[in-house]
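FAQ: What does a multi-protein file look like?

Like this. Sequence, then tokens, then the next protein.
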Amino acid sequence: MNVTVSQPDCLSGESVISDLSAALLHPVSIHVGSTPTEEMNGAGNLMDFLDEPFPDVGTYEDFHTIDWLREKSRDTDRHRKITSKSKESIWELIKSLLDAWSGWVVMLLIGLLSGTLAGVIDLAVDWMTDLKEGVCLSAFWYSHEQCCWTSNETTFDDRDKCPQWQKWAELMTGHAEGGGAYVLNYFLYVLWALLFSFLAVSLVRVFAPYACGSGIPEIKTILSGFIIRGYLGKWTLLIKTVTLVLAVSSGLSLGKEGPLVHVACCCGNLFCSLFSKYSKNEGKRREVLSAAAAAGVSVAFGAPIGGVLFSLEEVSYYFPLKTLWRSFFAALVAAFTLRSINPFGNSRLVLFYVEYHTPWYMAELVPFILLGVFGGLWGTLFIRANIAWCRRRKTTQLGKYPVLEVIAVTGITAVLAYPNPYTRRSTSELISELFNDCGALESSQLCDYINNPNMSRPVDDIPDRPAGPGVYNALWQLALALVFKIVITIFTFGMKIPSGLFIPSMAVGAIAGRIVGIAVEQMAYHHHDWIIFKNWCRPGADCVTPGLYAMVGAAACLGGVTRMTVSLVVIMFELTGGLEYIVPLMAAAVTSKWVADAFGKEGIYESHIQLNGYPYLDVRDEFTHRTLATDVMRPRRNDPTLAVLTQDSTTVEDVETLIKDTDYNGFPVVVSRESERLIGFVQRRDLTLAIKNARQKQDGVVSSSVVYFTEDAPQLPASNPQPLKLRRILNLSPFTVTDHTPMETVVDIFRKLGLRQCLVTRIRLKKLKFTSLCVCVQASPGHHHQEGRPASHGSDDEPGSRVHHVQLERRVLPPDGVNRYRPSPPSS
């Protein structure tokens, strides 16, 4: 993470986020004018001039970061009150029990709804994907496979053909074969694809701009404490569910797995609004969203354990032990619900069930590791190319025409995909075929081997055989499909439609792995006397399983793109049921991560977070600058001083003028401008709402009224208007560090404590006089801190008395990609 000095915090509109701000002040004594109880609960209390706090005080504005410590303090206070009241009556005891069980109820509801939506999406995608090629005459809502299931005229050799299912050319012209039928089917395939993608991008653009993309980068940012209002709203949930079906059915090189995490988090946010425990506390809400992310992966892959690990390793920022238990429960309920719907029709939860009959051998670790190297290189290539394309989309005229871009990419994809049977079918079906082992009952081209007529082995233990013409033809088609998938996925991911990356990445790896597996299999058959095969592959034995190589390649490419390790391996063996092959999966995943990390530490989601300018402090980033908190402090000598509030001498008009003329997130409260001794810190939003509400509901509050933050009102002349007490919106115990604290420590404090601001103290005892400073740092990737300390603190003989401000900020772009950032002028 690179640290630079930036302009003061300016939050104009939706564009600029200033959250990791460190305001530096030093308290002479934190308990000035406060009781110990107030010190503990200063952040949690709200208003003093009203009996009950009014709405929105203590909440956060859009595109801001929450204060984790304040949210934790609030929840502790709430829990303490409920516990104390539970001893007063039976009704209060019942309410406390309901509060304790509300978390489990929310998890149950999330699992049920996310599992149901995932099942409906799977069924709809299967039907609409097949609709591009034909229709079932007996029941138009049946997919191709379901239509032929119900037919009594289907033979085993022609299991994909039945009288009830007709392609569009056969239905319209009566001819199923021939050049004219092929052209007509080709044209209608492209037409359906364009229609589906046009509907998807139009719905997203008109009704829910936040429904585009994968959603995982934004989910990671939200779980780290960032506020993006509407991203997990009801409209986003509805539109994302509908457009996800349309986007996947269009045949674009994207998957539904990533967006299902977004859908599950929308379900979690929806149910949070039913319980005040979660709706009024952003920290508790994020615990629910972490569990919802686990449920999303659980239904996406049929991998509940992998979903929990994915949430822990890849998505969540704060993951306490109770969230682990609840995530497991939500993932379990979601998986059970999906299994009850049975969208795959195989009575299994896993998406790509495989059953291999040959163990793997130690010598095969070499090609497995090579597949890991390929996965790491592919991940690096994809991330750099996709980020370059997305950046070009943001900075050129291309970003102004998202509908045209989607239509163009869809048209190119459909035109190039139809001639190749491996790209024409859905990506999930392609991966399933690549994972399968070739048994005696398989009819795929990949299983067109030359059989020995004298073979008398069991059906499940077929020895290695020479490849037939169908296998070689399939290899050429797979090679073309590999190039096509690599190129088209770069331009597809990031468009203004729901687009997941898991399945396309797995498809690239599965194609490469299957090609390598067939090559190793044929080498072992034709050269079994080589030393590498001699010890474990005898003539006539079933030595190599090409489907296993496809599975390992899929894991390697997915790991290279996302940089997942533990959760990836668990997802893969849950996804396929291949627990015996966990070691090859681990070897490939670790190798792909090592290779990819050699070219850059960021995975695809972290890269998109940086591209969009979201304020995300990754715990895995290393802070390499050897600087202190004082090294990044601004302003310089001639810069304006920091705007502060005094504890009992500032008027309402002064406060309103200060709020109007500055864009700071909050203001330090000092005893007086002469002593500048810290009393506390008040948030800008709370201050604005408190004054607005006081003017409406409290008689006598006018512009000349004195605002005071002390316990007792100041001594004022009788002619003065009624003063306004705002002590309860004052944080009396802000977190502090010294100005000589290393910036590495400061960054760690922000990461691990989730602070919104940190007060940095500078104390000089030469004349028992104190200097107060307000400092912030900008965390901005790609910029480097300018070395050299500012000279803004007076001479060495006497400390300066000015208070200064530097704001730490991150920038964010709204969904339309327009950068509305406007630097604010220096405040005086």
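And here is the next protein:
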Amino acid sequence: MLITITRKACLCKPSAEQLLISIEELLPIIEEIKYSGVELTATRQVQLDALSRALHDGHELAGKVLASSRWNVYKNLQLSRKMEKVEKKISRFLRGPLQAHILADVHHVRFETTERFDRLDGSNRRLEQRLGSMKIGGSGEGWWLEGFGVKIDDEEPYECSLLKVGMELGKRKVKDMVLDRDDLVVIGINGIGGSGKTTLAREICRDDEVRSYYNNKILFLTVSQSPNVEQLRQQIWDFISDSKLNGCSDIAYQWPLQYNPWNTVTPILLVLDDVWSLPVLNQLIIRVPGCKILVVSRIKFQSDVLNATHELELLREEDAISLFCHTAFGRTSIPPGSDENLIKQIVEKCKGLPLALKVIGASLRDQSEMYWEGAKKRLSRAQPICDSHELELLNRMRLSVDYLSAKVRDCFLDLGCFPEDKKIPLDVLINIWTELHDIDEEDAFAIIVELSSKNLLTLVKDSRDGDTYSSKCEILVSQHDVLRDLAIHMSSLESVNQRRWLVMPRREDGIPKEWERNLDQPFHARIVSIHTGEMREMDWSKMEFPKAEVLILNFDSTDYFLPPFIENMPKLRALVLINYLNSTKTAQLHNLSVLAKSTNLRSLWFKKVTIPQLPKITLPLTNLRKISLILCKIDLKDQSELDLSHLFPRLAELTMDHCIEMTRLPSSICQVKTLKSLSITNCEIEELPSDLGKLLFLQILRVYACPKLKTIPSGIKNLIWLEHIDISQCVALHCLNEEIGGCVSLKEIDMRECLQIKRLPKSAAWLRSLRRVVCDDEVSWQWKEIEKEVPGLCVQVMEQNHDLEWLKE
């Protein structure tokens, strides 16, 4: 062994020299691939980044070996082992992933070659048709070809009837911005992947009126996810210089533009397609008189970057049918003798997304009616029609997701756990993400905004949305069904027992067969989502979820038995229970005692259920921090026996919204010393507990839209940590309590639409921490008097607002 160690240490330097030569040959090639400007998939980019880092580390390691003393055997031995690891890592990549890269590139080249030959055939046909009408002339400054002045890279064939479907309105709006609005310099076209953004932009470029206005001086550039910014800048500069000085420019390239080197104002249209980031966009915007820039992106850029934006809407039913039929049958209407109802059902599943309509229509072309029926069923289960449908549609759509950071991507995949065509309460998402991804509420809301800005979800705005203290139970999130299908597809690539996300779409007849076949093994999902109808005890199977941290139970029935397997979820941190029954009735909940063993449970979110008497839970939920009850009925008989401080000793947030039969809170709520947020909204509550002042650590008190509430207890003066109080729309409330001045930490009061409050208490002037008051016009003058005495106070007068749109869900 000593001889072996010595030999390895002695051969260390020759090995380092050989490694250095290999790295110096390989590293420039890898860097050239990375920064060539050719768009790479996220997976390839990550692999190449990892290889590049390994090569740089190897280069640094070889340098250390060469600098090391040959007599330091131990150090040379350690360095030798590290070199062996680097060599193995590089060798593994060259023998494994690199070969797969080459195979994929060959496949792409074959596909693109076939596609380009098809384009050439189409171009030849169009060229033959146009040669007869083409004018060729001269102007003393050179020759020109009418109709070929527009520069569009990678131009696609123009399929008239296919591209114009549902596009006329959007085209008209963008044309108005491009032609008639001199005040708009940078204009955006925005929409989700596959909604037809690039198609609309190309249609604008081909429009005769647009081409005439810009004298065919239109440059169309595809930016992509991995752009060569310097090369794009050079193209833009060359084109603008050519256009300004009719091809005779001798002005040196300069960027950013320090001054306008051209004395002419020439209309130029620059189209930047497929822009993925704001830093790249900022580097490509050039301010030149007469130049307008049209930015096409999936991302919603801010108004300080874009002067105006046109957001693409999804197709209406009539246009969706036309586009689907064009792809499936080669005509823009349903063919005679076809099953009209079946076609409309399949079109409805595409939810107006042009890409989905085209891909699914192409997948069904020339197929039998039985195949169509099977396709409809598979679509309804969020499954692909066939491999080609799945690969083309989902791979095109997942570009938007691959570009996200790992944590934001996981949050996007979580959205697949909710039923299609249903809005998701923002509060639910934040509860799940704070428990599952170890982030705080502010970070969770920032992720919502980021996903919304990238058109991966839609945030349904609320009048209070974004306020620091706003309630999130009435703010909703929606998502296109194709994006939901993508989330389910991406989260279901592993075997059913190994998936991090385990999702069961709506079923009436028990669990999926794939689950049944694997019941003998534990399921290792961290988030489990199950959608059923009515469930009884015998309907549940015995399953083990040792790693599950979130359980989402979606159902629609008037009776529901909580699954016994909750006992086999030792890590359960969040339970979401949502009844989607289209009725005013709540579901009777059974087996609530199964939660007694969920010692790690931190969050409960229930909607439209009737909760039995709480004392039947024999053990306290010692780690429960948040309870949210929406449209629930609660059995509060024998309140004297109810000790909430024993059942929920660490409860920090209690939210009850639209619990109509709730007329008073149990007095024991005031014994929950850890409570920081109490939100009782849209309820028939008549009074708050007289001992409310015992909640010494309460920071948020929200009792808005409680029409029967008449007073606020005097104990409020003891809430010295209270920061926010919301009594808006409490129409029976006569006054703010005279002792409210004791709330020395109070920062915000929302008292809009409190019609009975005509006078403010004198102690309101003592609220020196107050920074914002939202009120009606009637009392605004009194607050404005106090505003003069309280530095930093802002009084905001609001108009009446009644929004019950969310109740439709």
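Q: Is there any per-entry metadata?
A: Some entries carry free-text notes. For the entry above: The chain has a mean pLDDT of 77.
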